[in-house]
Write a structure and sequence with these properties.
3-stranded parallel beta sheet; binds zinc ion; 4-stranded parallel beta sheet; PHP_dom; EC 3.1.3.15; TIM Barrel; 9 helices; Pol/histidinol_Pase-like; amino-acid biosynthesis; alpha/beta; hydrolase
Length: 264
């Protein structure tokens, strides 16, 4: 299996560190064959009201992102394959704009990171509010609506809700199964998120990837892909969480894929 990674951030999201080139050099050092940059997407918020955010680049920073990644792709083409992607929510009011945007900008792929409901100015963060059953239901609904657009290559941290949910109870099982079944039907891989594994390990709190969620994914027969979700270039070089993820998925008998469908 090739060691590829399609979940990589840059400093533009304002909560990551390491230059773009440092991420590429760490990936080469780690033996990664294909590196996809998938920084948190900008949206076309009205500039007059948008207060900015600490979770994504501004729209006017996108040109620099694209130019930098394409320059690195050319510079290191003999050592590593580089793809230009984005990690994207599902914000209905912006989706028509966004679909035009990814075509115009020739984005290679997008992954679904269903972080917020509505938008990140007004909507709640799903990582914090899903102890409430109604919010967990909404997370599932947004996830499935998003995937039905057909633009997303995979579902990042599908069990993000376990960041805020205290118990993996019967309702959590039902929602998890519905998400997994929808992904299976649409042939959307589920990402086993290494940044989440690191947080769970360090805090001694089982957040995501949650074993009960992945047990259900294995039963449903989903495809899995390992995503680093690197917010620091050194995370790409860390083999500990990668090997643990691989071992967990192998124990579950899941099909682990190492490449994704691209938009172009
Ligand atoms: Zn992030
Ligand atoms: Zn991410």
């Amino acid at each position: 299996m090739a060691k590829n990674n399609y979940h990589t951030h840059t400093e533009r999201c304002k909560h990551a560190s390491g230059s773009d080139e440092a991420f590429v050099l760490s990936a080469i050092k780690a033996g990664i064959q294909e590196l996809g940059f998938s920084d948190h997407t900008p949206w076309n918020y009205a500039p007059s009201t948008y207060k900015g955010s600490n979770v994504r680049m501004f729209l006017d920073e996108f040109a620099g992102y694209k130019q930098s990644i394409l320059a690195l792709k050319e510079k290191y083409k003999d050592q590593i394959s580089i793809k230009l992607g984005l990690e994207v929510e599902y914000f209905p009011k912006f989706m028509d704009w966004f679909i035009d945007f990814i075509k115009k900008e020739e984005i290679d792929y997008v992954i679904l990171g269903n972080h917020f409901h509505g938008d990140d100015e007004t909507g709640p963060y799903y990582g914090h509010v899903c102890d409430d059953d109604a919010m967990l239901e909404l997370y599932k609904q947004d996830t499935i609506k998003a995937l039905k657009t057909g633009i997303y290559s995979y579902l990042a941290h599908p069990d993000l809700f376990m960041r805020g949910r205290k118990h993996f109870d019967a309702f959590t099982k039902k929602i998890s199964r519905e998400i997994c079944e929808a992904c299976k039907e649409m042939d959307i891989p589920l990402e086993y998120n290494l940044a989440g594994a690191e947080v769970s390990h360090i805090t001694h709190q089982q957040q995501y990837p949650h074993p009960d969620f992945w047990q259900i994914a294995a039963e449903v027969g989903n495809k899995a892909i390992i995503g680093c979700d690197a917010h620091n270039n050194r995370q790409l070089e860390n083999e500990y969480y990668y090997n643990q993820a691989k071992a967990h998925l192998d124990t579950l008998g899941m099909e682990v894929i190492d490449t994704i469908n691209f938009l172009r």
